[in-house]
Design a protein that fits this description.
This protein is α/β, with parallel strands linked by helices. The chain is elongated and about 90 Å long. Bound molecules: zinc ion (ZN).
Length: 454
Amino acid sequence: MKKTITLLFSLVVATVQAQNADSVAIRSIYNETLAHGKSYEWLRHLTKQIGPRLSGSTGAQKAVDWTKQLMEQQGFDRVFLQEVMVPHWVRGAKEEAYFRIGSKKTTVPIAALGGSVATSPKGVEAGVIEVKSFPELRALGAEKVKGKIVFFNRPMDPTKINTFEAYSGAVEQRANGATEAAKLGAVGAIVRSMASNADDSPHTGGMRYATGVPLIPTAAVSTNGADLLSKSLKENPGLTFYFKQNCESLPDAKSYNVVGELRGSEKPDEIIVVGGHLDSWDLAEGAHDDGSGCVQAIEVLRVMKALGYKPKRTIRAVMFMNEENGLRGGVKYADLAKQNNEKHIAAVESDNGGFTPRGFGIVGTPAQRAKVDPWKPLLAPYGLAEIGAGSGGADIGPLAQLGTVLFGFKPDSQRYFDYHHASVDTFETVSKRELELGAASMAALVYLLDTHGL
Ligand SMILES: [Zn+2]
C-alpha cells in the first residue's frame, strides 16, 4: 500500500514538474513573439510589395520566390519547393453590370467567380428570376427560368454566432448556382456575395461546373447591390439585368508549395506541419486570407530558433499553393508524404484570418483528442478556450488519409467575412497584436505536440 502511494506521489510530482516546464516554455514563446515578432512586417511585404497571388499569376510566383528566400534567411535546416501544376484562371478586363428599368440604368458592383466563363463580348442581358434556394429554383421549372438570369440571394444567416457556419450554409449558391441555373436553361447566374456585412465590394470565390451541363457565366454581386436589385425586382418584376465579363481559363501552370524545416533531434522521422496557403484571390492583397496564416507559420519556426529550442520531431512550415481554386498544393503535399513514406503526426493550419485567438478545432479520433485535454489549462491563460472536435483546414485535409491529426487555428470569426475574397482584404485590416497572438498560439501548440507527441 505504502509503495503504491509513493509511486502515485512521484507520478503526480513528475506531472506537475512537466506542466511547470511546459508553462514556462509557453510563456517564453509568447514573450518572444509579442516583443520581437516578425510576422507583421513580413505580412506587409507579402501584401503591399507582392499583392494578389492567384494560382498561375506572377504574384503567386513572386510569393514562392520570396517566402523561399525568407525562410533561407532565417537559417532553417532545409528549405525546398514541391512542384505542382495549378489552374490558371484570369479575370481579364473589369466586369460591367447594371439593371435596367425602362431607359434608366443602375450600376451594380459585380466580380466574376473564379472558374467562370466569360459572357459574349457584348455581354448578356435578360430578365431576372430571384431565388433563395435550389429547391425554390427547381420548383419554378424550366418554363420560368429558360432564357433568364438566375439571382441567388440567400444571405449568410446572421443569427449564427460562428460566421463560418453561416458561410457554409450559403456558399453552395456560389459554388453550384451556375450549374443548377443552367440545368433549367438560364443564360447567366448571379449570386449575393458571401459576406456578413452590407457593403459595395463584390466577394469572389471558387465555383464549379458539372459535366454535361451548359457553361453559363456567373458572378458575385455586392451585398448592397443584391439588396437594391431585390427591392427593385419587387417593384419592377420586368426589369432586365446586364453583365459583361472577360475571364478565361488558361492552360495549367507550373507552381510550387514552399517548405521550410527544422530537423528533429530525437525523432526526425516524425513530422509536424504548420501552414497556410500562399495563393490569394486576384482582387485583394490577401491579408487575412491567407497571408496571415503563411507569415504565422514561418514565425512559429523563427520563434523556436530564436529561443534556442531544439525540436525532438521535425517541424515544417508549409506554404500551400492553390487552396482557393483547386487545392492542388494540399493534395500534392499529401501525395508526396505518402510516396516518401513520411510519418506526419500532426498538421496545424491557420486559414481563418489574423484575428484574436480563440482555440483550435481538432480532426482526430476521440483518443487522440483526449491526449490534448491535459494541455488545455496551459493554453487557457492565453485566451485559447475553444479546443475540441472541429475542422482542420482545407490544405491539410488530404493528410487525414495518412492518419495525421489535424488542427485548425480558430481566431474570432466576427469580421472575417467582411473582408473575405474582396478588395477590402488588405494589410490595414490586420492588427499586429492579434496576428502575433495567433502566431504564438500556433507555436505553443506545436511545442506541445513536439514535446509530448500524440
Ligand atoms: Zn483561405
